Amino acid sequence: MQLRPYQTDAVRAVIQHFRHHRTPALLVLPTGAGKSVIIAELARLARGRVLVLTHVQELVEQNHAKLLAMGQAADIYSAGLGRKQAGGKVVFASIQSLAASEEAMSQPFSMVIIDECHRVNLQGDSQYNRVIQALERTNPRMRLLGLTATPYRLDQGWVYRKHINGTLRSPEPKPFETCIFELPIGQLIKQGYLTPARIIDGAIASLLLPVNDGDADTMLISQGRATTLICDHLTSLGASHQGVLVFAATVRHGQEVVSKLPPGETALITGDTPAADREGIIRDFKARRLKFLVNVSVLTTGFDAPHIDLIAILRRTDSVALFQQMVGRGLRLSEGKKECLVLDFAGNGYSLFSPEVGEPKPKSDSQVVTVSCPKCGHANHFWGKCDDNGLLLEHFGRRCQGLDPQQQQCDFRFRFKECPDCLAENDIAARHCHACDKALVDPDTRLKEVLKLKDYLVLRCAGLSLTRHSLKSGQPGVKVTWHDEDGAELSQIFGFATPGQRGAFYHHFARMHLRSPGIPLRLADADAVVDAARLFRHPDFVIARREKYGWKVIETLFDYRGRYRKADSAD
Question: What is the CA 424 to chain-centroid distance, rounded?
């Protein structure tokens, strides 16, 4: 079997890594990239014994078949497939079956490959943790490799710590140390290895869908018209498509969808569907005896039906990677298939080519933006906003994710809170200064403290405005006004004529109020500051102290998370 160029590159990256390192490594390959071919080639080249683990028997069978097609023998250890052989050079196993056998877990292997490894949890009493620990006890020099299209989990974050491109994903321990190879999905489409996708945002329908999955059942009972309209549309489109895959929000939601699609042509798969029934439904769908297949959080990975050319997404997700995984179900090549139509009725709004950010969307209209670090130049991917011309308006990044040659994280912080003693910049959620260990004041404690004091005022800020102001000296200045949701105001005046005044404006106002910190700020005069008002964000709270001539702003609180209610934002 002839490997594609990128498959050869992936295999080469694995060999190169394990020649010099023993740390667990990760390959990130989109759906349809041929992970099973890469696994087969690695198993063929390996000098020692190889164990290939996955969580579903379909993948066990599929990966095993690829190795057989390359003329190599291999065993299968899977109760669901009725085979429990584990003595060969290469063994394909389901994690559930292997974890149930102490004898199987004590077999010596030189390499363990985990397919769909984003499901791995190496903490506590998880199956993967028990199996990996047992295998390492048998062979402490065992190498661990993971493959996935989605290296991020909403409940645990990234499954690896560092990327080969110099990005730090997490300072905390993860199942895999380094992502040693990542293939963008756009490259596969451009080179003709995947079918192009045409993604359409079902904007009107999305207004009728629930805000989150938990409200789906209530919505369907009281506003079933949304589901009816969507299903009528899918039924109409189905006549000109080969296979339709629907992602529903909940089991109740899925049942409602099935009831409104053509009977006899539609089936539902959920996590509770018995294995035998699930196999039969998938078999009928692949044989095109079923046109519509509805599922609830089941067919996002390990499912291969190349004829799918219409995908309807009726559930929301905070993960770019999961969205791309769902779309990926329809990107495999198939005869007579020119594109896959994707209808995003849930208004997720992600791009098929966007990288995973690793954080939920802070605002519904956020998009993935690239922000270069002004200190090390690393290209960070954060959530943010751009104007119609692609100009960055705002980003929500906190710290540069770049790694230096010594594998230390860059210390530049886009957003921070300053230590009052040593002026070191700390993470906005830090409780102690990383430089001098001083306890940093908790925002809740600070608000509670000043609310008790007679000569202090707390403004629940809902907006910010900038106006031109003439100082008593006649020099030009800028008046900053913070607006309370009830109409109250607090103001501060900054000079902007001399270098010292411009520096004070930046230090005391701009650096904390900038929507896109780290982006060079070049404002020539006070008029330019006023014209650039959209570059600045308002704080959540403003604290002022009464002085002889009125209130003086002494503190602004950003990125607040606590028990006190914030204003309904004017943004």
Answer: 30
HSE-CB of 484 using CA atoms within 13 angstroms? 14
Q: Is 530 left (phi over 0), alpha (psi -120 to 50) or beta?
A: alpha
Q: What is the mean pLDDT of residues 404-415?
A: 89
For residue 439, what are its two tokens? 């306890």
Give the largest CA-CA distance in the chain: 89
Q: Is the pLDDT of residue 522 over 70?
A: yes
CA-nearest of 539, 541, 523, 521 to 531 is 523
Per the rule left: phi > 0, alpha: psi between -120 and 50, beta: everything else, 319 is beta
pLDDT in tens, 25-37: 999 998 888 888 8
Residue range of the domain that includes 255? 188-344
Neighbours of 265 (CB within 10 A): 14
Pair 439, 430: CB distance under 8 Å: no
Cα end-to-end distance, the chain, whole Å: 57
Distance of alpha carbon 120 from alpha carbon 174, whole angstroms: 10
DSSP-derived letter for residue 33 is S
Write the CATH number for 228: 3.40.50.300
User: Alpha-carbon dihedral of residues 134, 135, 140, 143, nearest 10 degrees?
Assistant: -140
Q: Name the residue among 26, 32, 25, 33 with its Cα closest to residue 8.
A: 33
Confidence of residue 302 (pLDDT cuts 50, 70, 90): low
Domain assignment present for residue 564? The answer is no
Do 207 and 330 share a domain, yes or no? yes
| Euclidean distance between CA atoms 481 and 63, whole angstroms | 63
Q: Give CA–CA dist 249/215, Å, rounded.
A: 9
Cα torsion for 276, 277, 283, 286, to the nearest 10°?
A: -140
pLDDT of residue 548: 84
| Residue at 167 is within a domain | yes
| pLDDT of amino acid 205 | 43
146 and 234 part of one domain:
no
- Answer yes or no: is 520 within a domain: yes
pLDDT of residue 225: 65
Alpha carbons 203 and 153: distance in angstroms, whole number: 27
Average pLDDT (223-238) is 80
Task: Provide the 8-state DSSP code for 401.
Answer: -
Domains contained in the chain, number: 3
Helix (H), strand (E) at residue 490: strand 489-495
Packed helices 225-238 and 251-259: angle between N→C axes, nearest 10 degrees: 60
Phi, psi of 333 (to 5 degrees): -70, 145
Query: 165: buried, middle or exposed (CB in 10 Å: 19+, 13-18, 0-12)?
Result: exposed
pTM beyond 0.90, yes or no: no
